[in-house]
Design a protein that fits this description.
- The chain has one domain.
- Helices cover 72% and strands 0% of the residues.
- It starts with 6 loop residues before the first helix and ends with a helix.
- By secondary structure, the protein is mainly alpha-helical.
């Protein structure tokens, strides 16, 4: 079973995300956003495919993950 994100972990990842949003160099910003997504995927075993049960059981994590994803320009 996948671990739940703690409050402290959420704070650290959210701070990291907000710090990335302030980066002015777009290439660096995009690379850091991708790295953040990868770190979240690995730490919390986020499924590659949309999994409704996982999403329901990890709402805060998935809200952050989707926010990071939305900032990326692919």
């Amino acid at each position: 079973m996948t671990e739940q994100m703690t409050f402290g972990e959420m704070q650290r990842y959210t701070k990291r995300f907000n710090d990335i949003l302030r980066v002015t160099n777009e290439q660096i910003k995009q690379r850091r956003l991708a790295n953040l997504m990868t770190d979240l995927e690995m730490a919390y075993r986020i499924p590659a495919l949309n999994n409704k049960e996982f999403n329901r059981n990890h709402t805060e994590l998935m809200q952050l993950y989707r926010s990071v994803s939305a900032e990326r320009s692919l």
